[in-house]
């Protein structure tokens, strides 16, 4: 697919999304779209910005792929992945990979098309792990990835593995586990960019900077606005379930996460932090 207008490409992708996941449209239309060439593909942050590289969305193979990547980013917001990372003091690099694995597995099983370069459970992902099962939550993937990193360090791979973790913590989330930039608003609150499909988040825009057209990035959404949109999505999802008699796999996982939150492997996390403090 080739096009000259990124907004037209975005509009066509939204049409695909309305057909596939009408219950997510409150979030799809609520996010603040920022076209910028400072990221390779797309990314979101904790303030409701959806960053889109206009050249990439125009050169994507199809409207369906664009819809899949937008759905991926919207799912980060729906599942509140940025706030979970901050509240849980998680390693941003590992968390970014874990959330990608959870989302991409669900979207693939739901019939979405995604770029081949994304993170998928049946591909090599991190540390000593070559594959992981489909259907786990982000925290369950995070625990397994953290354990693999911890075991790799104990096996003599600690220097490289730890360095990667430090990069992730310093730079925020982005880039399928690569280093990402942090977006900072006028009040000095830092929001990690999460998930640039298929590339690094380096060079991502800041609120004090300009987007691809030289304009200031607009103010983000308030927490209550994001919460309201998520709740509206949940209401529409429940309505869809009653009418269709079924809900998609990702929605069932969300329901399971809401009722039974998996525990974080704090022992592994504390061991990693302890080693960093020792070296410092």
Task: Give a description of the structure.
This protein has 280 residues and is mostly helical. The protein is 53% helix and 6% strand. The chain is built from 10 helices and 5 strands. The protein has a 3-stranded mixed beta sheet with strand order 1-3-2. Strands 4-5 form a two-stranded antiparallel ribbon. Strand 4 and strand 5 form a beta hairpin. Helix 1 packs across helix 4, helix 4 crosses helix 6 and helix 6 packs across helix 7. The longest helix has 34 residues. It is globular, with a radius of gyration of 18 Å. The protein starts with 5 loop residues before the first helix and ends with a helix. About 21% of the residues have low confidence.
Count the beta strands. 5
Structural class, from helix and strand content?
mainly alpha
Mean pLDDT: 74
Question: Could you estimate the helical fraction of the residues in percent?
Answer: 40-55%
Largest sheet entry = 3 strands, mixed
Q: How many angstroms does the end-to-end distance come to?
A: 50 Å
Q: Which regions have little confidence, pLDDT < 50, spanning 5+ residues?
A: 157-192, 196-204, 206-213, 257-262
Number of helices: 10
Q: Estimate the global geometry from the Cα principal axes.
A: globular
Radius of gyration: 18 Å
Short description:
This protein is mainly α and 280 residues long. It has 10 helices and 5 strands. The protein has a 3-stranded mixed beta sheet with strand order 1-3-2. Strands 4-5 form a two-stranded antiparallel ribbon.
Which descriptors apply to this entry?
single chain, 280 residues, mainly alpha, three-stranded mixed sheet, 10 helices
């Amino acid at each position: 697919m080739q096009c000259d207008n990124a907004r037209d490409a975005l509009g066509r992708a939204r049409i695909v999304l309305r057909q596939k996941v009408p219950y997510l449209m409150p979030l799809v239309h609520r996010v603040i779209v920022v076209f910028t060439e400072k990221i390779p593909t797309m990314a979101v942050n904790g303030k409701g910005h959806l960053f889109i590289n206009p050249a990439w969305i125009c050169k994507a193979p199809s409207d369906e792929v664009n819809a899949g990547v937008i759905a991926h980013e919207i799912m980060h917001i729906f599942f509140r992945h940025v706030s979970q990372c901050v509240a849980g003091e998680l390693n941003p690099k590992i968390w970014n990979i874990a959330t990608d694995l959870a989302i991409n597995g669900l979207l693939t099983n739901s019939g979405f098309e995604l770029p081949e370069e994304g993170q998928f459970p049946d591909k090599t992902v991190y540390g000593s792990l070559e594959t992981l099962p489909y259907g786990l939550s982000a925290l369950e993937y995070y625990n397994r990835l953290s354990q693999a990193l911890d075991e790799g360090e104990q096996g003599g791979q600690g220097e490289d593995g730890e360095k990667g973790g430090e990069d992730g913590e310093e730079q925020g989330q982005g880039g399928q586990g690569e280093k990402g930039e942090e977006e900072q608003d006028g009040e000095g609150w830092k929001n990690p960019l999460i998930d640039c499909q298929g590339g690094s988040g380096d060079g991502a825009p800041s609120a004090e900077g300009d987007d691809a057209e030289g304009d200031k990035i607009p103010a983000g959404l308030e927490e209550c606005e994001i919460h309201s949109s998520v709740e509206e999505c949940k209401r529409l999802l429940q309505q869809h379930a009653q009418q269709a008699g079924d809900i998609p796999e990702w929605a069932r996982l969300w329901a399971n996460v809401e009722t039974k939150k998996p525990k974080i492997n704090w022992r592994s996390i504390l061991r990693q932090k302890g080693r960093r403090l020792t070296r410092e």
